[in-house]
Structures are given as C-alpha cells and as structure tokens.
C-alpha cells in the first residue's frame, strides 16, 4: 500500500494529475480531447458519469492518502472544482 | 403481417476464428482452435487445454472509456455486436431507442474481472477494489453494456441456463419481437479462461484431462472423456421478417421453432427431456423429421450424455436418419456461447450448401448416427436443428429455416 503514496508535502494536485488519473481509472470518451481547455467543462459533458467519478475519487484517495467524502465528490462537477477539493485536503496539516 | 422472426446479422468470436469470415473459413476446412491454455499458467491444473479466441486486441476495437470497466467476455461481446449490426446494415442511431432490445445468455459472468478485484481485496484491501466491480462481473453485464453502447432501451435481459441459455436467449428475443419490438440483439459470448473460472468449471467433473489437442474432446467416440472448455460465441441480430424485408435486409434464415424441457430428478427412471425438446421445436416449426437436413449436436463427450443425445436423435429421426455434426469439436464447449455459434454455423451452412465437419471423432459402434466426419459434406441445407444442454438438466432445441 505504501509504495503508491505520493509525498504530499511537496506536491500540489494539478490538472495534469487529474487527467492522468481519469485516463487510468476511466479512460477517455471518443471525441473528447482531455488536452483541450476542460477546466470548467462538466464531467458529464466529458463522458464521466457518477461511477467513473467514484472510481476516480478512489484512485486519488489511494495515491494521495487522503479521504474525500462522498458529497465533496458529487458536488465537484468540473475538473476545476475537483482539483480545488483535493488541494484543500492536501494543504491541511497532518 | 407474419409472425416470423429472422436473423439478419452475425458477429462471431470463436477459438478457431475471430470474425464470421475467419470462423467459417476455419470451420468448413476442419481447422481447430484447441491448444494449451495461454491466458494463465495451467500447468498445476488437471485440465490444460482450451479453445481461446485468437488475435483479439480490445484496445484497437473499443474506446478507452470502456476498457477499465469491462471483462474480456464483455469486450468480445461489444465488438461482436458492432460486427453483427454492421453485417445487418443497421445503424442504431437511425432507430427509435425503444424499438431495440438486448437479450443475451451468460453462464458465468466476468470471472476474470472478478478474480482480479477479489485478489486486490485480499492483498491490498477494500479501497483497491474497482467501482466497476459493481457490475463488470455479473451475468447481465453483456446485455447492459451492449444496450448502453448502442442506445437500445427496449425489452432486455439475460438468460442463465448454462449451455442451453444460448438457445433460450434467442427464444426470448423472438418472443419480444413478436410482442412488437423491431430488433433484438441476441446470442451470447462467454469467456472465463482464468484460474477462478477454470476451477469453477473443473467442479463439473466434465473437463477432459487429456493434454493432446486432437484427443481431448471426442463426443460420440468410444474414448469420450469430457470436454475442452473454450471462450467466445456469436451475437445475432434478430428482427421481424416484415421489418427486415421492409428495409431490404439480407436474411440469413428464420428462427422457426423452439422447444425447452428440464430433465426429471436423477434416479426417477423417467426418460431424459432432450427428445421432447426436439419434438416441441419441430412441432412449432411445422416441420417433419424428414424436413431436417442437419442436426448440430450438443456433443457433451460424457459417455452417458452422448448416449442420451444419440438415443434422442435416433428416436426422432430413425437410425442414421439425419446428418449430425459437432463443429464445436474445433472450438471446445463455449458454455452459453456455443449454441449461438452453432446457429451461426447452421445459417452459414445454408448459405454455402455445406455441412461443417466433426473433427477427430471416430464414431462409437454404440451409436446409430450419421455423423459427418472429418470432411465437410456438400448438402442443400434448408432446415437445421441446433441442440444445447445445460448442466442441471436444461434441454433446448431450435429449428432454423432458410427463407425464400
């Protein structure tokens, strides 16, 4: 379990990290360019439904060793919102 | 307005050929797909041969969005469905979503996916189990994923009756079309050549432990000693004959009769139900035994089950009264995928006028069957009977007929 943990003290969760985890956990919808300007595009429009976001949240929790509550995940309906939620957890002192 | 239900598209994933063309080219020439298991190390298991579908690269054929959430059997089923729809000349977006349904059979679900998640649960903990485990393993997943991918919201479901399920699903699809749904995607694809699936299949006591591909699966042979397990199957596009004709579709044939029975409890002394299933299917098709040009046997390769099947065929058709073939000797038994693959082979046999061979088998003197041997047989095939039996006493029979 420990080997996948990232050094949170020096790391910020970025769009780059989110894209990597989305691709690993849920793949990409045909016709959707994740490299485009997607920060404010709703996840639904990007082809990710609630289960894909549940899987994504689960992968983030494991890699960053944080715990996201279900509401935070369902309320964060765009990449920008989800990145903000994750970073809130990362900046909380251990 | 007729009540007739026809097949207008085929999508095949078989151990001796991926795609309808490769499957039929192999099958008509007697090419087997049975070999040593390659998908995992089977050296510690009693059964070490399988029919594995060759050359399937899901990444080339499906969007990446679907890969983390699908077992191999679902990936095969989704691609086979794409091929079947293309073969039928159907573009789902052009039809009303509620005029299309999906009824497939399944005998084990996505065992390989499930095995991976259980291993993660055991080794790493529940946080490592994929959210997709909630559906990726279960029986109805192929129907569900086909339905979602193609926007099919009409009557749908899954039939679970082991190998007989492949015919039972086609029968259920036919019912739904008769009730008014325009098109149903049916058939079945199973694939559980993984340690968990293997152990589950071994519990039947019916897997051959031979290590020789040409001696391992010998239905109706004096040396019959169980079957080789395989993966794959076929997806069929079924439509009302009226709808198919109205759009000028190519019609492979009509599903004209179906019969299903359950064997009595072992020890009851009552006759096994297979003969009755055949009679019901013929009666519904309005066919006499003499009309049937070929029987695709269930071909269990368990001596007692072979005897029951040979007796049922002889009782209905008379001694050596009808050509009998078992092309599954080239694929192994594919569980729910077997019978739809036999239906596909029957329809292709009609098209070509050729009964595919039964390979490796030397007919036991115990059976009075006209078994088509290692060479294909040229024959006009207008009516074919496909048989399938499932573990636990399921017997199903389907009559397919050429359409003028």
UniProtKB/TrEMBL annotation, chain A:
Coiled coil (residue ranges): none
Keyword tags: Phosphopantetheine, Phosphoprotein
Residue ranges annotated for the Carrier domain, each copy included: 9-90
Pfam families membership: PP-binding (PF00550)
Highest rank taxon of the organism: Bacteria
InterPro entries per UniProt: ACP-like_sf, PP-bd_ACP, Ppantetheine_attach_site
Transmembrane segments: none
Keyword Phosphoprotein applies: yes
UniProt protein name: Actinorhodin polyketide synthase acyl carrier protein
Organism annotation: Streptomyces tubercidicus
Organism lineage string: Bacteria, Bacillati, Actinomycetota, Actinomycetes, Kitasatosporales
Automatic annotation (TrEMBL), chain B:
Gene Ontology MF, one: 3-oxoacyl-[acyl-carrier-protein] synthase activity
Any one of the GO BP annotations: fatty acid biosynthetic process
InterPro entries, sorted: Beta-ketoacyl_synthase, Ketoacyl_synth_C, Ketoacyl_synth_N, PKS_Beta-ketoAc_synthase_dom, Thiolase-like
Signal peptide, first to last residue: none
PROSITE patterns tied to this protein: KS3_2 (PS52004)
UniProt KW keywords: Acyltransferase, Transferase
Residue span, Ketosynthase family 3 (KS3) domain: 2-402
One Pfam family in the UniProt entry: Ketoacyl-synt_C
PANTHER family: POLYKETIDE BETA-KETOACYL SYNTHASE 2-RELATED, POLYKETIDE SYNTHASE-RELATED
Recorded family membership: Belongs to the thiolase-like superfamily. Beta-ketoacyl-ACP synthases family.
Protein name: Actinorhodin polyketide putative beta-ketoacyl synthase 2
Organism in which the protein naturally occurs: Streptomyces tubercidicus
